[in-house]
Write a structure and sequence with these properties.
There is one protein chain. By secondary structure, this protein is of the alpha/beta class. Helices cover 44% and strands 15% of the residues. The strands form 2 sheets. It has a 6-stranded mixed beta sheet with strand order 1-2-3-4-6-9, sandwiched between helices. The chain has a 3-stranded mixed beta sheet with strand order 5-7-8. The longest helix has 15 residues.
């Protein structure tokens, strides 16, 4: 693994850490490349039941590295977000993901958070899509994922004004699942991750995939997708174990089969 990110695994929990604290974990091309490699590694590892995404130092991520962007021409700027980006890889990761957010969470960093399944915020977290103040706009999902989470009215306020919001407001509008004291953030993220890592991985992956794909479909088609996924899970050993354990009033021992 490279020097700008860290990837560790403890039991069924993987932790991906942005490690550029002197730049508030600003997203350079090299950091994004290392993240892409790490996400591929996690996706292929069946031992991983959940991924935590966090930042080292005073911030989760202050956004893109502007010094590396200002001389881009239109073609190269567009090319940065072509193909499968880090944001898409994170959203499409088979395992559930938890963003553990503290300090600044701006621009491309906020868009990383939007691509995660669950979001825990420290009480000192600040969120924003300030690209408009640089003469540009969000380019990694801010104009698309954000409205799907908080609604178009509030998303336009954040994108068009470019003003930051604090953790309590982020919770109020549905941008984050929970706000906790900063010193408890990682412990809480690990508690959530531990719960997810103990649940049936095939059912988690199916539920995540159906929800992600279904939101872009009309309701009848999405419901059919849900029905098919529901039926497929009845062919798994985990379904048999889960229902047997429920009837026997004991904890289930899921194996991912």
């Amino acid at each position: 693994m490279g020097t700008l990110i860290g990837l560790s695994r403890q039991g069924g929990i993987a932790t991906l850490t942005l490690q550029r604290p002197d730049k508030l974990n600003a997203l350079s091309q090299e950091l994004l490349r290392e993240c892409q490699e790490a996400l591929k590694e996690v996706a292929a590892d069946d031992r991983v039941g959940c991924l935590i995404l966090r930042g080292e130092g005073r911030a989760f991520c202050a956004g893109a590295d502007v010094s590396g962007m200002r001389e881009l021409d239109p073609a190269r700027a567009t090319a940065r977000f072509s193909g499968e980006t880090v944001w898409q890889a994170l959203e499409n990761l088979p395992q559930p993901t938890i963003a553990a957010i503290h300090g600044y969470c701006f621009g491309g960093g906020c868009e990383l958070v939007l691509a995660c399944d669950l979001r825990l915020a420290a009480d000192n977290a600040t969120f924003g899509q300030p690209e408009i103040k640089l003469g540009i706009m969000p380019g990694a999902g801010g104009t698309q994922r954000l409205p799907r989470l908080v609604g178009m009215t509030l998303a336009k306020e954040m994108v068009l004004l470019g003003e930051p919001i604090g953790a309590p407001e982020a919770y109020r509008i549905g941008l984050v699942n929970r706000v906790v004291p900063a010193e408890q953030l990682l412990d809480e993220a690990r508690r959530w991750a531990d719960k997810l890592a103990r649940l049936p991985p095939l059912a988690l992956r199916m539920a995540k995939g159906v929800m992600n794909r279904g939101r872009g479909l009309d309701l009848p088609t999405a419901l059919e997708l849900e029905r098919l996924g529901f039926g497929v899970l009845f062919g798994t050993e985990d379904q048999k174990e889960g229902m047997r354990a429920f009837l026997e009033k004991r904890p289930a021992a899921f194996q991912g089969r």
